[in-house]
Amino acid sequence: MSLSELIKPDAVLPALRVNGKKQALQEMSERAASASGLPAREIFDALLQRERLGSTGVGDGVAIPHGKLAKCDRIFGVFGRLDRAIDFEAPDGLPVDLIFMLIAPETAGADHLKALATIARLLRNATIAAQLRATRDPAALYALLTMAPASNAA
């Protein structure tokens, strides 16, 4: 699964300014709502529900919050590069400054897991993560997210 199938250029937030996890999820839910036509509150609630199971902070300053919605008809994402890193309760204790939010239909199953794996592989690449942190240009961020080879083993 290619990230160009999951994210569109208008779903890249190059300098997100938030003070905490809930605010980050709320801001990103708003962008996801405008990109998808789904209600922002339902997206936000699905993300919060998933966070209650355990943080989606994966380490090394990266979080991949995700949720499933009955009304959603396709898997899609929103990427946020934070101006200032925030606590995301990641297992390594490091604050998060790169967030890739993923929303999927309730029936997505294996496709949802494949999308999460693709995102994790990309953001675990230290070179790509450094490049994402070094730019604020939305087009450059989008290019890094979608042009990077995601062929590393999971």
N-to-C CA distance: 13 Å
Number of strands: 6
Supply the CATH architecture.
3-Layer(aba) Sandwich
Task: Report the helical percentage.
Answer: 40-55%
Q: And the CATH topology? A: Mannitol-specific EII, Chain A
Largest sheet: 6 strands, mixed
- Point out poorly predicted stretches: 150-154
Number of domains: 1
The computed structural class is alpha/beta
CATH class descriptor name: Alpha Beta
Number of helices: 5
Using the alpha-carbon principal axes, give the shape: globular
Query: Over all CA atoms, what is the radius of gyration?
Result: 14 Å
CATH superfamily: Mannitol-specific EII, Chain A
Question: What is the H/E string?
Answer: EHHEEEEEHHH
Task: Provide the β-strand percentage band.
Answer: 15-25%
The overall pLDDT average reads: 93
